[in-house]
Amino acid sequence: xxxxxxxNQAATGAGFFLLPSGLRAGxxxxxxxxxxxxxxxxxRGLAHYDSLSEENVVALCDVNEKRFPxxxxxxxxxxxYVDWRKCLEQKDIDAVVICTAxxxxxxxxxxxxNRDLHVYCEKPLAISVNEARAVRANWLTKKGKLATQVGxxxxxxxxxxxxxxxxxxxxxxxxxxxxxxxxxxxxxAGYLPGDGAPPEGFNYDLWLGPxxxxxxxxxxxxxxxxxxxxxxxxxxxxxxxxxxxMGSHTMDLLWNAVDAKLPTTAEAKGEAFNPDVTPVxxxxxxxxxxxxxxxxxxxxxxxxxxxxxxxxxxIDLSKLGHGAMFKGSKGFLFADFxxxxxxxxxxxxxxxxxxxxTVETVLPRIDHFQKQWFNACKDPGEKTACxxxxxxxxxxxxxxxxxxxxxGKKISYDSVAxxxxxxxxxxxxxxxxxxxxxxxxx
Length: 442
Fold this sequence. Notes:
Elements: H1 3-13, H2 21-24, E1 35-39, H3 49-52, E2 56-61, H4 68-74, E3 79-81, H5 84-87, E4 95-98, H6 105-114, E5 118-121, H7 129-140, E6 148-150, H8 158-169, E7 175-182, H9 204-208, H10 246-258, E8 265-270, E9 282-288, E10 297-303, E11 322-328, E12 331-335, E13 340-344, H11 369-378, H12 388-407, E14 411-414, E15 419-420, H13 424-427
Parallel strand pairs: 1-2, 1-4, 2-3, 4-5, 5-6, 7-10
Antiparallel strand pairs: 7-11, 8-9, 8-14, 9-10, 11-12, 12-13, 14-15
Helix pairs in contact: 6-7, 7-12, 8-10, 10-12
C-alpha cells in the first residue's frame, strides 16, 4: 500500500476526517511531497531538475550510466537504474517523469499507468496511432484517480487562452478552418551505418528498446542537451519527425482553440516517401465533425517550408516560423506562441457583432505547467491542461496524417474502432512492429 494511502486510511479509521491532501497542510507541506522517478536524466530531463527539487526524487533511470554522478549531486538519495522496467517496480514511487527517447514514451507511460502511478511524459505521447489510443484508453479507466500531463509546456503561455477566447467568442465569426505550421528543415538521407561499439556505460540495446535494431552510430547522439532529440527523432523507428517535435507545440495552439477530438478523414502530400526518414516538406489535412458550438471544420498542418495561402498579400505568414491561422466567416486570426493579430473583413469589419465574454468567464492563465501536474497528483479534483485524453487525441490525428502520407491517398477513419475504412493497407501502418521481448502493455 502506498505510504500516503495508508496514512489516509489509518487516520480515517481512527475517527479523523481528512480533506484532500492538497488541502490538509498545504500542497507543499513535507508530508505531501511526491516520491518521483525521473526516467531519462539528461536532455529534456535536465529541464525538470529545478521543479523536481521541490518534491522527493527517489529514483533515477538512464541508459547512460555516466549521467548518474551529476544527477546524484542534485538528488543524492535516489536509487539508480538503467532499465526503466525495473525502475517502475520500486515500491515507494508515486509518480514518474518520462524524458526518454520518443519511441519509448508510450511504453513507459502505459507501464506506469498499469502500476497506478501518476505520469508526466515529454511530447510526443506516442509515435504510432495504436500507441496513442492504447495509452489514452488506459488512462481513461483511471481518470480522476491518476494525474497525467504531456510536456507541451508552451501551453502555459497566456496567449494560448487568449486565442481560444477570441475564436470561441466569435471574434472572426463562425469558425470554418484552422491551420498550423512549423518551419524546421532537418534532413537525413537514411539510417546511419555502424561506426563501432557504444561507449562504456551506454546501454544501447536498452536505448533501442522496442524499436527495430539499427547499429550504433555516435551521430545519433551528437546533439547537446537541448537538441539531442533532433539527431534521431526524424527516423521512423525512433520518432515522428516534426510531427512529434514542434508539431506537438504548434498544433497545440490550434487544438486548444477549436475543441477538436478525432478526424473523420486524413489526406497528405509532400516530398517523396523515404522508408527510413520522416518527411521534411509535408502538409496534412483533416476533416472534423461539428461540436456543440461550431460547424464541421478542416484542420491543416504544414511543415518544412510548405505554408498555407495567406488571405492578404501584405501578410507574410512565413514571418511566423511556428504559427497558426484561424479562418472564420467574418475574419482571420493569426497567432504564434506569444502574440496574435485579428483581421476582420467585410461590412461588419467594425466588429459590432463581437460580444466578448464577461470578466468572470474569461479563461484563467495556466499556472506553472509542471506544478499544475504536481497539484493534480496530490488532489484528484484538480485538472491538467494537457492530459492523456487531450494530448492523445491531438497526436493520434497527426500520426494518422503520416499514415495518409505513406499510402498516398485520402483515408476515411472510424475513430471509435480505430480503423481506416477505405484503405486496408493503411491499417497496417496504424501500429509498428516491436522487437521480441517488448510489450506495450506490461
